[in-house]
Amino acid sequence: MADILFKSFYMAGFECSSHRRRSDGVRLDLIASTGHDRLVREDYRSCAQHGLLTVRDGLRWHLIEREPGRYDWSSWLPMLEAAVECGLQVMWDLFHYGSPDHLDQGSPEFILSYARFAAEAVRMHREVTGTAAIVCPLNEISFLSWAARNGVFPSIGPEEGGWLSRHLVSTAVAGMRAMREVDQDCRFIWAEPLINVLPKTPADAEAAEAKRLSQYHAYEMLSGRTAPELGGSPEWLDAVGINFYSDNQWYLDGSTVPLGHRDYRPLADMLVETYERYGRPLLITETGAEGSARPAWFHYVCDEVRDAIRRGVPVEGVCLYPITSFPCWDDQHQRQFGLFTGPGPHGKRDVYAPLGAELYRQQELLERECSPEVRHAAAR
Question: How far apart, in whole angstroms, are the C-alpha atoms of residue 317 and residue 332?
Answer without folding.
Answer: 30
